[in-house]
């Protein structure tokens, strides 16, 4: 053993001499390693340090240095200058590089975007991969390639084959791994990109102009498609080939043979813009109007809802509650990125395209019900108890449903919706490459038109007419919108076709870059943002609570949740009146008082929420049999007279502004012996306060302050959020955003006190005050 250690030590000492001969640039790294290793050696870390140093040195040489060896046998020369165009990796090295990045969020030459920072098992390394590789997959100028079509193909495959592991690979020799391009972040929002993107300064093999599709299984034998116009059927066939080669033809391959078909039960959303969801509007993409009814219909696309408001910006109603696909009443209907809409006055119905569901849907304004008119669905909804439990746990299984056979004419990611002179609807995708003519009466696709020239022959005049109103919009604002979208040659502003609507003398505009809605006065030409009100109609945002919150906090459900305030109390069993006072930051304005319909309150354990409970049945749904028995006793003991009950009803659960800069929330819980927890969620609609003393606005500070409020976890994507907010030329002090309030109160209650007769128990009433600072 002593001899072996001596040999290892001698070999280790030879390293500086060998390195100095061939790689003098690494001497400093070695010196720092030895210094650091002497500090760590007492903990046995020198071997690991040596391996890490060797690995990083190898990586450094491959990426930053290019050794230029002469052909002479007597001399060698080298260059330490940074290489402008790195040598492309071989296919084997490329796959090895991709595999080496899967477990790390950021490395020396790469960084993951739109990927969960703490998740190391995002991919299954033996699965089927689809990589979209290009120099700038977020830009519209891709050597003549249409990125809209590219994203549609990739997302369609991702929907049909949930087991397919999709990623983007954006490379550039000069890419900055510390700064995310704004156009790429905007593209993630605009195209609703669910797959992660790997940024790297490495090149991929066989570099060609534009993006390419790389498919493989288990990091072996990749299939590479360089064709710019490779069709969806070719990529679909490649997935089946890779699956069939391994003798495991998936059940999903046989089932999901449709370009629209999969109704996703467990909805995933882009990770990188999770903070931006706390803006009041998240990609307001399209708008339509009902002039006679004084109503406007705004598609708040990435919030999966349609907001109905009047010309004074008072919110009247909302269509859609959570992402998904389900017909129901407005508050229970599920949509996936609704886009353009059309109000049909004779029926008092709003027709709209449900983009990610590849559907056309109708909202009956009188009955307040959403119905799907295309595609028709004859499947039966599963109503078993086990399906209900899985749904509540967020683990509902996909149900085999008859689906339309795969063909190129199927409705795929519709976006624009126009009314023809006849009783038809013109439905177009974002790139205007496909037109579906739909019968308004029966919802049947009568004709599919492909190719831009043919599309323009049919509805070119309608597109020109509707786009022409944008010539009155200020050029600086208009150019910013056009930089982030695509327009047809010869038809200026056509990409904003569904983002503008006439309302009497005014022009209403969706600002998808600044996440606002504006009004252009037709007489004065002045432009102003809508100052929305009546937010209580929207209720609690769906992303504030997790499905598992209703049952248990398992796994890492709470790991991604910011908690503003946690406080514990030791109390006697009985009724507890809670008064929570929230302090609004001095640099923020509360847009309007918090409405009680926006508050989500739940008691778990030995406590039960009693405020707002209208019936005994409602109040006992959240607890077990033993707790119900205690609650019945509490209910009988604390029964009040009619007058007292009215007073309690007027105060309990009501929320009010107590004083300047404060919000108050009241609630009451009934506790029994044991431990319990009360969870309270509420959205505070805020905007930056305008300071009369400051003559100039600091946009960088404003963006940073907003980022801190909407992203309280201070995620690594914070700088990208700031950059995204700064991309808008509008005043950030007009931007309404949501402060997600999350409070948890823990109660530890002993046994009931005994009465003098030692047989009865004494029920007590307690009051507590909780002070929360909404930082």
Automatic annotation (TrEMBL):
Keyword Repeat attached: yes
Domain of life: Eukaryota
InterPro entries the record matches: 6-blade_b-propeller_TolB-like, NHL_repeat
Keyword Repeat: yes
Keywords: Repeat
Protein name from the UniProt record: Uncharacterized protein isoform X1
Organism per entry: Coffea arabica
